[in-house]
Design brief:
Layout (H helix, E strand, L loop, with lengths): L2 H21 L5 H11 L13 H27 L3 H16 L2 H15 L5 H27 L2 H9 L4 H31 L11 H12 L2 H28 L7
Helix pairs in contact: 2-10, 3-4, 3-6, 4-6, 5-6, 6-8, 7-8, 8-10, 9-10
C-alpha cells in the first residue's frame, strides 16, 4: 500500500472512532437535518441578510484582507528607523497581541459609540478580527523579510533601484515562501475565532448553533454540527494553502 493509502486508512479509522463516540450521545438527527440549511446559509435572516456559513466566510475573508494590510504596514514600522513609525507599530502589536480578542471586540462594539461612531455588528466583528490578527501577522511579515539575506538588498541597491521597488521586486518574492505557511495557519485560527462575534448578535454559525440548541434543549446536536462545519472549512483553507505553497520554488535563497 502506498504512503497516501496508509494515511487515508488512518484517517478512516480515526473518523470511525469519532463517529462511534458521537453515536453514544443519542443524537436527534432529525433536528440536525431541520436546522442544517440555516447553518449553511440557505435561508436569509428575517431582515434579508446572510447568515450561517456565508456570513462566517464573509467576516473571515474581509478580515483576512485588512489584517494582511495592517500586518504588512506594522512589519514595515517594526523594521523602520523612524521612531514614530517604530513606536506606533510596537504599541499596536503589543496591545493587540497582549489582550484577548473578546475584550477587543467588546471595546470596539461598546466603546466606540461613546466616542461618536456607532459601528454595526458586522463592521465591529471585521475590525476586531483585523486588528487582532494584523498584530500577529506583522510578526510573520517581519520574520520573513528579515530572513532574506542582506546581500539581496545590497545587490538591488547597487543597481540603483528605489527602496520600494527593492521590497516589491526582490525582498517580498523571496520572503513569501517563508510567510505563506504561518500566514495560512493564522487565517485558519481566524476562521475559528470568528465564532466570538456571536457575542455581538451576528447570526453566524456559532450564534445559530447556540440559539437552536437553547430553544430545543439539544445543545450537543447543534454544537457538533457547528464543529463539523468549522472543520470542513478548515480543510478547504488548508487545501488552498497547500496549493499556494506549491507555487513557490523549494530550496534555499
Amino acid at each position: 500500500m502506498s504512503f497516501k493509502g496508509k494515511v487515508f486508512l488512518v484517517w478512516m479509522l480515526l473518523a470511525a472512532c469519532f463517529a462511534a463516540f458521537v453515536a453514544s450521545f443519542d443524537l436527534k438527527l432529525s433536528l440536525i437535518a431541520e436546522k442544517l440549511p440555516f447553518l449553511l446559509g440557505l435561508h436569509l435572516t428575517p431582515n434579508g441578510f446572510i447568515q450561517g456559513l456565508p456570513l462566517t466566510l464573509f467576516l473571515c475573508l474581509a478580515a483576512m484582507v485588512f489584517s494582511t494590510i495592517l500586518g504588512f504596514l506594522a512589519a514595515l514600522g517594526r523594521l523602520s528607523g523612524n521612531p514614530l513609525a517604530y513606536g506606533l507599530a510596537t504599541f499596536y502589536t503589543s496591545f493587540f497581541r497582549g489582550t484577548p480578542l473578546l475584550v477587543q471586540l467588546m471595546l470596539i462594539y461598546l466603546g466606540l459609540p461613546q466616542l461618536g461612531p456607532v459601528p454595526g455588528a458586522v463592521p465591529a466583528g471585521i475590525i476586531a478580527l483585523s486588528l487582532c490578527y494584523g498584530a500577529y501577522i506583522s510578526e510573520i511579515f517581519r520574520a520573513g523579510i528579515q530572513a532574506v539575506p542582506n546581500g539581496q538588498r545590497e545587490a538591488a541597491a547597487a543597481l540603483g533601484l528605489p527602496r520600494w521597488l527593492v521590497m516589491y521586486k526582490v525582498i517580498l518574492p523571496q520572503a513569501l515562501k517563508l510567510i505563506v505557511p504561518p500566514l495560512g495557519a493564522q487565517f485558519i485560527s481566524m476562521l475559528k475565532d470568528s465564532s466570538l462575534v456571536s457575542m455581538v448578535g451576528l447570526w453566524e454559525i456559532m450564534f445559530l448553533a447556540q440559539s437552536y440548541g437553547r430553544s430545543s434543549y439539544r445543545y450537543m446536536e447543534m454544537l457538533l454540527t457547528a464543529a463539523v462545519l468549522y472543520w470542513l472549512l478548515s480543510i478547504v483553507f488548508e487545501a488552498i494553502q497547500a496549493r499556494i505553497e506549491a507555487r513557490f520554488p523549494q530550496g534555499r535563497h
